[in-house]
Amino acid sequence: MFGVALLLSVFTQEDFLFRMTPAEASRSIYGADPFTAALPVARYISEHSGKSAKVAVLGPEPEIYFTRGVIPPLRTSICTG
Question: Is the pLDDT of residue 80 over 70?
Answer without folding.
Answer: no
